[in-house]
């Protein structure tokens, strides 16, 4: 799972590069690579479905065979946090969300030899719902690759915080 120390650090670029290179690598051996963005925040409509914009990009650009609803199973939009806190969004309750993520991931993992999973924001994004990127990675059994900006001071600080969340 590709995560980052903060938003706009290059998760999507790294995910797309990994997807492109791994697809080529596995294709030489007769294998395939899938992609998934389990929880998204910024969405677009594709075939009447609300899906993460990065997932829509990957799905279209790479002509992914998996249904877009699996590639982007959960989108958190405006008002969803309030609905979660008010307990009026059953789909966001822990058991329902876990089942949705697990079903989508398992279907993609069963269809491919390897899956690139892209996180959203930084590792703690989603904590108010109890589903930050670190928990999603743990739920899916995915190792985490952390993308960070260049530099020393604040970069090491951000990396340290995000590593702690992941652990």
Describe this structure in words.
This protein is of the alpha/beta class. Helices cover 46% and strands 16% of the residues. It has a two-stranded parallel sheet with strand order 1-8. Strand 4 (43-46) and strand 5 form a beta hairpin. The two termini are 14 Å apart.
Topology, element by element:
Blueprint: E1 2-4, H1 11-27, E2 33-36, E3 39-40, E4 43-46, E5 49-52, H2 53-61, H3 68-71, E6 74-75, H4 80-85, H5 94-111, E7 114-117, H6 133-140, E8 145-147, H7 153-166
Largest sheet: 2 strands, parallel
Please report the number of helical segments: 7
Count of extended strands: 8
The mean pLDDT is 92
Structural category is alpha/beta
Low-confidence segments, given as residue ranges, are none
Radius of gyration from the alpha-carbon trace, in angstroms: 16 Å
Q: What spatial order of strands do you see in the largest sheet? A: 1-8
Helix content: 40-55%
How big a fraction of the residues is strand?
A: 15-25%
Shape: globular
Report the end-to-end length measured between terminal Cα atoms: 14 Å
Order of helices and strands: EHEEEEHHEHHEHEH
């Amino acid at each position: 799972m590709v995560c980052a120390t903060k938003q706009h650090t290059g998760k999507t670029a790294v995910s797309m590069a990994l997807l492109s290179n791994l697809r080529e690598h596995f294709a030489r051996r007769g294998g395939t690579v899938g992609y998934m963005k389990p929880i998204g925040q910024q969405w677009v409509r594709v075939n009447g479905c609300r899906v993460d914009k990065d997932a829509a990009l990957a799905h279209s650009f790479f002509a992914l065979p998996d249904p877009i609803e699996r590639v982007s199973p959960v989108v958190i939009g405006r008002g969803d946090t309030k609905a979660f806190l008010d307990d009026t969004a059953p789909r966001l309750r822990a058991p329902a969300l876990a089942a949705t993520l697990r079903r989508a991931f398992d279907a993609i993992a069963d269809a491919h030899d390897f899956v690139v999973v892209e996180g959203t924001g930084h590792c703690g994004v989603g904590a108010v719902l109890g589903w930050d990127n670190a928990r999603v990675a743990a739920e899916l059994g995915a190792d985490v690759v952390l993308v960070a900006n260049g530099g020393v001071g604040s970069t090491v600080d951000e990396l340290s915080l995000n590593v702690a969340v992941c652990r």
